[in-house]
Specification:
about 500 residues, Helix Hairpins, Heat Shock Protein 90, 5-stranded antiparallel beta sheet, 5-stranded mixed beta sheet, about 20% strand, elongated, disordered N terminus
Length: about 500
Amino acid sequence: MTSPAAAQTLPDLAAFFDVSLDMLCIRDAHFRFVRVNEAWTRTLGHRIDALEGARMLDFIHPDDLRHSEGRMIGIGPDGEIDGFINRYRHADGSYRSLEWRARRVGDYVFGVARDVTERLAAEAEMAAAREAAEAANRAKSDFLANMSHEIRTPLNGVIGVAAALARTPLRDDQREMVSLIERSGAALEGIVSDVLDLSKIEAGRLRLDETAFDLRAELGLVIDVFRLRAEEKGLDFRVVWEPGAEGGLVGDPLRLRQVLTNLLSNAVKFTARGGVSVTVGCAQGHLSISVADTGVGFDALAARQLFQRFSQADGTITRRFGGTGLGLAISRSLVELMGGDISAESEPGVGSTFQFRLPARRAPLGPVAGRGAPETGDLMERLVGRRVLLAEDHPVNRRVVELILAPFGVELTIAEDGRAALERLAVERFDLVLMDMQMPVLDGLAATRELRLREAATGAPRTPVLMLSANAMRQHREEAQAAGADRHVAKPVTAQALLQTMAEELER
């Protein structure tokens, strides 16, 4: 405690009160200013003598008055408020936002305020900009999803009819033309999938699956495809499985295959002579895969933009080889999502080596079902005589399913929308329903939900439902499952995928 003698030596506290950059004030129990400092004049433009003795409430914005009065009344003995914001009138008639800290001492309240008008405006501007960016991103994602649906719907007809035509007797030149249609359709589907993957990555919506898988079996699916492509070009193709590169791992095998597919696709595409080699290693908790080629290569300048979106090492590459320039960008994003890293080394005219490393978690494997395509005779035996209802509004897609199922003895009934399908299901028994997701009158999701409710109410046996959809994003698969569908089959539908999925569901 300061003695009376020492107190006489203290400087005048009024000087400190007036030089403060913060707005200081003292008010009484009647909300009247007893004292204010010069900061009030600098901030609000009012003279000190116009403020002292005036009621604080007369300067507060009408919309803030009730709340402000309640907060001030609520300061009990030795109580305080902190972080409270309201608006005070400036001498020019505008309002400034003040942030308060105040404490009651006896019959008086001591307050400190700061002008936060610019800060709040900046925060509001940032929030508006963030909301605008999120809205634009949502609009882009919706557009891409719709675009995917609109492209996949006619593409389903192209690929489906071509596949059906390939199973008929054809001359060699006709079979070659059908093969070109199938390959072009598959390439177009790949482009659509790349664009959708990029959209999901940008929006942070791409999620990885966690499942146990056989490393050699999963990578072998990709390697075997590109071995054939390399041999068609007269290239050597070599695969090295290092010790430990086998057994079960936990991760997302689909995305792992996608990265390897992108690297091998580039390696085979950009190599005219020599060969391509793949090296797979799995040791010390990491899976490492490298793809080397003797192709065109690239220089250090090109390497800096290699993993950027819509970018290729050389502007002439798109004209010479085609491609969207998305494969490596998507691969890098996928590898990083999986907790790994990817790199590239190259020399122009000599070749390139791409390598990526991922954390590897071992997992025990049970018996692995064979992945070979079932024989036609086996499918015929499993499907012949089965009664199937197809709900599909698009005439080309209806015809595609008819062409796929007719040779296998399936008894197919057509409904042009979800409501018509439910009407048929009310009076007839079917072994399986193929339900398009988007239809007029009643869509596939609503129809499936109504079917499941009807089955539960009547005790009728469950009819398997396969949801056929040009909406191929993960959220659409989840929507189909939530509606009660047993499986989701993305368009374009291949004959093998449809037939095999139907057979599996019919035998469950």
